[in-house]
Amino acid sequence: MIRSGWFPGAACVLALGLASVGCAYDYAPVCIDVRDRASFAPVAGAEVSVSNTRTLNPHPPKPAVGVTDLDGSVTLRVAVYNDIIVRITPTDGPAQVFSVPHPVLAGPTGWIRPVRTAGGRSPTLEARVSQGLTQ
Fold first, then answer.
1. Sorting pLDDT into bands at 50, 70 and 90, what band is 22?
2. Which of 78, 85, 49 is nearest to 65 (CA)?
3. Which of 17, 56, 74, 79 has the fewest C-beta atoms lying within 10 Å of its C-beta?
4. What Rg value do the Cα atoms of the chain yield, rounded?
5. What is the pLDDT of residue 117?
């Protein structure tokens, strides 16, 4: 005989189990090259954070954060899940935000400008996003 309290408890356990299945994402290396828009010089020391676009996902992929090297480049492991949001904060300027398809799914981008900057300032950076080399 099934007791009246059994079904809601089982439903909660099942829902939690199904929600945890969504946490298993594939991650791939993504290379972000950053350069000054006016001089085309590489931007070293910029903080780069990458997250994935999402809607109503209680368990989104983990974001990735790094700093560009002397060549203005950083490679991060990013979930292969929807488009990616790249936020670049140079040491001497405002954060700038780029939204692009994941390069593993759509291929590399050319040099792109940000979709917005902090405080509505003029964009000063360009970025190129490509699939990183496997090490």
1. very low
2. 49
3. 56
4. 20
5. 80
Q: Residues of the chain with pLDDT > 70: what percent?
A: 81
3-state SS, 50-107, equals EEECCCCCCCCCCCEEEECCCCCEEEEEEECCCCEEEEEECCCCCCEEEEECCHHHHC
Q: Write down the residue that tokens 């996003």 correspond to.
A: 129
* pLDDT, average across residues 17-39: 80
Global confidence as pTM: 0.78
Q: Which two tokens stand for residue 22?
A: 């969504």
Q: Are 25 and 81 in contact (CB under 8 A)?
A: yes
Q: How far is CA 69 from the centre of its chain?
A: 18
CATH of 25-131, one of 1.10.12, 3.40.720, 1.20.120, 2.60.40: 2.60.40
